[in-house]
Write a structure and sequence with these properties.
This protein folds into two domains: 15-153, Triple-stranded beta-helix (Sandwich), CATH 2.60.520; 175-277, Sandwich (Immunoglobulin-like). The protein contains one helix and 18 strands. Helices cover 4% and strands 47% of the residues. It has 279 residues and is mainly beta. Strands 1, 2, 3 and 4 form a four-stranded antiparallel β-sheet that branches. It has a four-stranded antiparallel β-sheet with strand order 6-5-7-8, with no helix packed on it.
């Protein structure tokens, strides 16, 4: 047994030990860390891909594009009448002579085809086992003729155990908390968002097809896709809850059983509990 995080007689912490710690903390899957701009790709032209700031983990190895900067990756011209998929990998290399390790973007060009182009092969190494090259696929770039038609990110955001605790939003849109104990609140634990509470109108209000935004969640709490849920209201009434991709918490479509949309008075109970994933 050797100490890693304490002072030794000599320099003793190795990159392999650091990577082992990272892998034990984040996990063994390749992923993008929740920092910076999440390595978001931006197509500058049909020949130039920009990758915004962020960090990623692959086999415990951390590499980054610094905050406030971006990397530029050159895409070779496509061929008229042909389709192609290029693979952008983050390549780890170890130089045996100098023992220098580094990461760099490498574009592996696919084979042009009239239809159904395939993703090219890459070096499936494992730096943990001493492989000198270890590619991690990050983006697929699809071309149709000379035009880039799509850039697909291959990696998800890393899961995190960060807990924001409960946050109380400012409620509006003609509604207020049903009571102090039923105040709406939201919380993020890792990649999971929970929203609970209950509302009531501040005055009699028709709750129809057009939805009303009650509050808006901050970025980082936004769902990947529009997230709907059918909820119980007072008596036999039901209503429609929706969380939009911009964090909009919306209320609409109040009905008594399966009748037409109806008016809610100030005593109508709009309880809710919804959970979804982000990232």
């Amino acid at each position: 047994m050797k100490i890693v995080s304490g002072r030794g007689e000599n320099d003793h912490v190795t990159s392999a030990q650091f990577r082992q710690f990272i892998e034990g903390t984040i996990g063994s899957l390749s992923c993008i860390l929740q920092t910076g701009d999440h390595l978001e790709p931006e197509l500058a032209s049909n020949n130039l891909l920009r990758v915004k700031s962020g960090m990623m983990c692959h086999h415990g190895n951390i590499s980054s594009v610094e905050n406030g900067t971006y990397d530029e990756i050159t895409i070779q011209n496509g061929t008229q009448g042909m389709k192609r998929i290029d693979l952008v990998v983050n390549r780890y290399t170890f130089a045996e002579g100098t023992e220098i390790e580094k990461n760099e973007w490498v574009v592996i060009q696919g084979t042009p085809a009239e239809s159904n182009p395939v993703v090219p092969a890459y070096t499936e190494g494992d730096l943990r086992q001493g492989d000198l090259i270890d590619d991690c696929p990050v983006f697929e770039v699809e071309l149709d003729g000379i035009n880039v038609t799509e850039v697909r990110k291959r990696l998800n955001l890393c899961s995190t155990n960060e807990d924001t605790d409960w946050i109380i939003p400012d409620v509006g849109g003609g509604f207020e908390p049903y009571s102090y104990g039923w105040r709406p609140r939201y919380r993020r634990i890792g990649n999971e968002v929970h929203i609970v509470g209950a509302l009531r109108p501040t005055k009699n209000i028709f709750v129809g097809q057009e939805q009303t935004t009650i509050f808006t969640l901050p970025k980082g709490f936004w769902p990947i896709v529009q997230t709907p849920q059918l909820c119980q209201a007072s008596g036999r009434s039901i209503w429609y809850l929706e969380v939009g991709v911009g964090g909009e918490f919306r209320v609409g479509r109040l009905r008594n059983s399966f009748d037409e949309y109806t008016t809610a008075d100030t005593g109508t109970w709009f309880p809710f509990s919804i959970t979804y994933f982000v990232g």
